[in-house]
Amino acid sequence: MATSSLPAYDAHQSAFHEAFRDDLYRLIDALPLRTDAHLLDVPCGNGFYSRRLAGRLGERGQLHAVDANEAYLDAARASLDSTGSPATVEVRAADVYRLPYPDHAFDFVWCAQSLISLDPEPALREMFRVAKPDGLVAILEVDEFHHILLSWPADLEAALPQAVHAASVQRYGSGVKLSPSRRLRRILKQVGFQSVRRETYPIERAAPFDEPTAVFLTEHFAYLKSFARPFLQEDLRPDFDRLTDPAAGDSLLHHPDSELVCINAVYLARPRRLPRGRLAR
Asked: Is 8 helix (H, G, I), strand (E, B) or coil?
């Protein structure tokens, strides 16, 4: 169903993009993407990845960026208008479960951190349908339990995943809803992909954090406070509150020994196995 307002997670996601922009763009640059590819970005969100993907295409390339959120489509259009890419670019509203394209329309399909808010199996089945038999579907996903690693005290580090699990069960009815990468290989095989490969991309930061990283951590702490804190043991909450308080001098945001590791996974899936010895596209 089409929507016209930004989702509640937009500030957190935008802060993530800004904090790790260069690293995420290097991830895009490493994709096996031809300059003449017909490429689908679904759902494209605000165009953060669409912009970099368009920059990798030449004049024979095509980028189709689709989303069901009109506010995101407006942002994607504005972002793509200034890329200077010679490729043909189309931004349009579309339902990920009923894409307005024929079978085998695309050489490359890109999907970034969207399966948390989607029903993964029908969404991936539709991506399989529109990908060429020798094409490639690339999916950037995370595991909430291992996505953002911080220098928590040991007792909090052990308790927080349990709190996230309990919160996920209460909100979604599933402890793994926030970790689509755990099920992704299995679902990709179920919908028909013959070849699935995972590539892991760690990103590291250490104190003192630059401003974009500090903004992201502030958003991340606010998310943990609203989502996971109610499920923490009561005796751990004071330490959690202090360590996530941006105004506290010894919080993880300001402590000189703080470190952050962000783990991202890209799954590269092909509808059909390539003959032995054939180079990846």
From this structure: coil
